[in-house]
């Protein structure tokens, strides 16, 4: 199997723009389900152990621990529940909740986290800065090692991947917490990794091919993509083995993390071939036409 | 033609590695500090508030409070506590493992209680009677370390020293006696020195504890996170199990698809895992769930290095190269790609470490270590192993590389 990937690039761009618009719309309409890492208040997660009604559970919880006001209850995997309390609970209230849960449910395995508004904002800000600085670092390195067109095309395709992952999480109402940020960081790393392998081949082929026309350039990129295709697919396969096993067998604490990775790694492989390289061809051929 | 010395060299690397790894891996794994998300426990961030009479929080005050907390945690017998100052006036307490979480939390926020006890064990003075300016000094004559203290009311101290002259005056913080100096003379000024400390460090510690008792700063909990021990244990076993299954799948895939380079990649992967855990142990890094995930995912990156090289070798075979030159050229040509890809990963890791907090930092450290381990095992060692095997002339058939057995492949 081998087909001309570069020729159809307008379709991929169209597809990506469509997906991005849908993703942004989802995020604007549904909002992000921020975890306590980024939103002030308290979060109590425990195992109910059987089917339950969310509203009913909220009522019971407030009766069991009269001093707290429950703002939402969400059912999660394996008959687990996440109870949100908008006001940060005190240490005494935390102990009351613990006593109530252990009394009411068998193997409740409670997990409680609380955060003050100031600290929540600090954490969110730091996470965003960490991603931003990481991206800038990558752009600078690629601009030095390759050229700025590669760097910018690569980063645009990575941002698209991040957008897809975040909007799928918004759509599924999954929590955005600090582990999710760690997943996004891994995805950024991997996607750039994927893109660099292809760009590297393009750079190498540029030395051997005589590029005079736009179609020469398109051929070169097409060849480069196909030469690295086996590697692209096989590497994604091995990473999908890892992330997939973490998702299937890794337990609840790591489920969302691995899901984010799975979505991100597959999208990343797609976008390094169908977006990053194509952006570069489009950009480079403009310059070729001018010359 | 067959050079057995090269083959023996290859065997030696493998055998030596397993001879080193098999007896030690249990100890290495057991010695790794697990984060509280993997063994249960809690993580609380406190902000040191102004004193009860509106006293400003000073850096010394924060330090004194921190040491008082350490003291209390030690007393409760909780193993490996992690208590650190964060920013200017915050203290993070991380307690992992199995213990009475409720009691521990109650104990932490309790303000320090300092009492002076007479020989009968009755309190004669309290923390509030002491000025919070205790400090480490040296004896002007002997140079021995001492702690200078001062009472707010000289008369009270005069009464005490008069009444119990020649007897020990025990100083108790949160129910535990920290020192019991003997009163050697009646003191009128309220100023005294306590001697008998081993060194400057011990004297400074005592001074800090006295200050924490003299001016206790209340603590406000600003974030907290707690995991029940059984949940943490479940997360750990499941993640490890997932990692193992992923390992087996990758092994099978690499062996079937890439044959010899695949086998070498698998051996290198086992070395990678060992090296990683050894580094985590050696550097005293706390392994958290995101950290563990970074390591399991690092497997993918380590395999990728081998895949890139093996694909290049196939290219060289297709170009009609002999086995030896295909391997050498394949390895050489794949190098720039591997270096670029891994350097970008490291850059991302370093920046994450720099700007991230807590769990992101933990992830970043694991990520950086795993890229370095990849370099050592997947780049250096696996190349060496493959070259030794090929140079021994035992393996010539391109079939071993999953490459087509075509034109002139055996020709030299």
List the helices and strands and how they pair.
The complex is a heterodimer of chains A (291) and B (412).
Chain A: H1 9-30, E1 33-34, E2 41-47, H2 54-64, E3 70-76, E4 80-85, H3 91-104, E5 111-115, H4 117-145, H5 148-171, E6 175-176, H6 178-208, H7 214-227, H8 229-249, H9 252-290
Parallel strand pairs in A: 1-6
Antiparallel strand pairs in A: 2-4, 2-5, 3-4
Helix pairs in contact in A: 1-5, 4-5, 4-6, 5-6, 5-9, 6-7, 6-9, 7-9, 8-9
Chain B: H1 4-30, H2 36-39, E1 41-48, H3 59-75, E2 82-86, E3 90-96, H4 101-109, E4 114-117, E5 123-126, E6 135-138, E7 145-150, H5 154-163, E8 170-173, E9 176-179, E10 191-195, H6 200-214, E11 219-227, H7 229-282, H8 289-318, H9 323-355, H10 358-391
Antiparallel strand pairs in B: 1-3, 1-11, 2-3, 4-5, 4-8, 6-7, 7-10, 8-9
Helix pairs in contact in B: 1-7, 1-10, 3-6, 7-8, 7-10, 8-9, 8-10, 9-10
Question: Would you kindly provide a written description of the structure presented here, covering whatever features stand out?
Answer:
The complex is a heterodimer of chains A (291) and B (412). Chain A has 291 residues and is an alpha+beta fold. In chain A, 70% of the residues lie in helices and 10% in strands. Chain A is built from 9 helices and 6 strands, in the order H-E-E-H-E-E-H-E-H-H-E-H-H-H-H. Chain A has helices spanning 9-30, 54-64, 91-104, 117-145, 148-171, 178-208, 214-227, 229-249, 252-290; strands at residues 33-34, 41-47, 70-76, 80-85, 111-115, 175-176. Chain A has a 4-stranded antiparallel β-sheet with strand order 3-4-2-5. A two-stranded parallel ribbon of chain A has the order 1-6. In chain A, strand 3 and strand 4 (80-85) form a beta hairpin. The mean pLDDT of chain A is 87. By secondary structure, chain B is an alpha+beta fold. Chain B has helices spanning 4-30, 36-39, 59-75, 101-109, 154-163, 200-214, 229-282, 289-318, 323-355, 358-391, and strands spanning 41-48, 82-86, 90-96, 114-117, 123-126, 135-138, 145-150, 170-173, 176-179, 191-195, 219-227. Chain B has a 4-stranded antiparallel β-sheet. In chain B, strand 4 (114-117) and strand 5 form a beta hairpin. The radius of gyration of chain B is 31 Å and the shape is elongated. The model of chain B is unreliable at 407-412 (pLDDT under 50). The chains are: A alpha+beta (291), B alpha+beta (412). The interface between A and B is large, with 71 and 70 residues. Strand 5 (111-115) of chain A pairs antiparallel with strand 11 (219-227) of chain B.
């Amino acid at each position: 199997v081998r087909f001309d990937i570069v020729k159809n690039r307008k379709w991929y761009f169209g597809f990506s723009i469509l997906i991005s618009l849908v993703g942004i719309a989802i995020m604007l309409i549904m909002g992000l389900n921020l975890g306590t890492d980024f939103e002030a208040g308290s979060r109590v997660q425990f195992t109910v152990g059987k089917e339950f009604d969310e509203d009913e559970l909220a009522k019971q919880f407030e009766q069991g621990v009269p001093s707290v006001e429950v703002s939402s209850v969400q059912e999660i995997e394996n008959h687990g529940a996440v109870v949100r309390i908008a006001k940060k609970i005190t240490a005494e209230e935390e102990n009351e909740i613990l006593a109530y849960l252990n009394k009411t449910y068998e193997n409740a395995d409670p997990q409680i986290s609380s955060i003050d508004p100031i600290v929540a904002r600090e954490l969110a800000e730091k996470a965003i800065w960490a991603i931003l600085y990481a991206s800038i670092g990558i752009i600078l390195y690629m601009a030095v090692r390759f050229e700025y067109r590669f760097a910018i095309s690569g980063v645009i395709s990575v941002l698209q991947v991040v957008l897809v992952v975040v909007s799928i999480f918004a759509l599924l109402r999954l929590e955005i917490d600090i582990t999710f940020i760690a997943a996004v960081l891994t995805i950024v790393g991997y996607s750039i990794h994927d893109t660099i392998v292809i760009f590297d081949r393009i750079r190498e082929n540029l030395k051997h091919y005589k590029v005079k026309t736009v179609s020469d350039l398109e051929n070169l990129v097409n060849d480069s993509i196909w030469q690295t295709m086996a590697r692209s697919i096989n590497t994604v396969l091995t990473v999908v083995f890892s992330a997939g096993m973490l998702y299937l067998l890794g337990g609840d604490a790591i489920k969302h993390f691995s899901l984010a990775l799975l979505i991100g790694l597959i999208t990343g492989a797609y976008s390094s071939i169908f977006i990053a390289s194509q952006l570069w061809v489009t950009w480079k051929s403009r310059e070729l036409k001018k010359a | 033609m067959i050079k057995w010395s090269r083959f023996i060299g290859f065997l030696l690397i493998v055998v030596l590695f397993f001879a080193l790894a098999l007896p030690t891996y249990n100890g290495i794994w057991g010695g790794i500090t697990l984060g509280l998300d993997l063994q249960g426990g809690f993580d609380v961030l406190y902000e040191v508030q102004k004193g009860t009479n509106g006293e400003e929080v000073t850096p010394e005050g924060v330090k004194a409070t921190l040491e008082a907390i350490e003291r209390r945690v030690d007393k409760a017998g909780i193993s490996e506590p992690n208590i650190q100052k964060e920013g200017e006036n915050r203290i993070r307490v991380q307690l992992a493992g199995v213990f009475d979480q409720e009691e521990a939390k109650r104990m932490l926020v309790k303000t320090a209680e300092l009492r002076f006890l007479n020989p009968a064990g009755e309190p004669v003075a309290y923390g509030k009677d002491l000025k919070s300016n205790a400090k480490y000094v040296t004896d002007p004559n002997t140079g021995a370390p001492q702690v200078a203290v001062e009472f707010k009311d000289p008369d009270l101290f005069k009464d005490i020293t008069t009444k119990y002259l020649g007897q020990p005056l025990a100083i108790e913080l949160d129910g535990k006696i920290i020192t019991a100096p003997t009163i050697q003379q009646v003191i009128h000024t309220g100023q005294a020195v306590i001697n008998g400390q081993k060194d400057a460090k011990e004297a400074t510690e005592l001074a800090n504890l006295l200050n924490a008792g003299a001016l206790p700063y209340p603590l406000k909990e600003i974030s907290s996170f707690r995991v029940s021990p059984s949940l943490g244990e479940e997360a750990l076993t499941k993640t490890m199990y997932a990692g193992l299954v992923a390992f087996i799948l990758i092994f099978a895939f690499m062996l079937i698809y890439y044959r010899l380079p695949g086998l070498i990649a698998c051996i290198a992967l086992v070395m990678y895992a060992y090296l990683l855990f050894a580094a985590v142990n050696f550097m005293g890094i706390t392994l958290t769930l995101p950290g563990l995930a970074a390591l399991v995912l690092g497997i993918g990156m380590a395999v990728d290095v081998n895949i890139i090289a093996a694909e290049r070798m196939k290219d060289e075979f297709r170009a009609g190269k002999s086995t030896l030159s295909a391997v050498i050229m394949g390895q050489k040509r794949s190098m720039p790609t591997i270096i670029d890809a891994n350097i970008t990963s490291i850059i991302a890791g370093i920046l994450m470490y720099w700007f991230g907090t807590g769990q992101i930092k933990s992830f970043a450290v694991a990520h950086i270590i795993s890229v370095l381990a990849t370099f050592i095992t997947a780049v250096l060692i696996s190349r060496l192993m493959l070259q030794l095997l090929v140079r021994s002339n035992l393996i010539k058939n391109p079939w071993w590389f999953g490459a087509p057995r075509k034109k002139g492949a055996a020709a030299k």
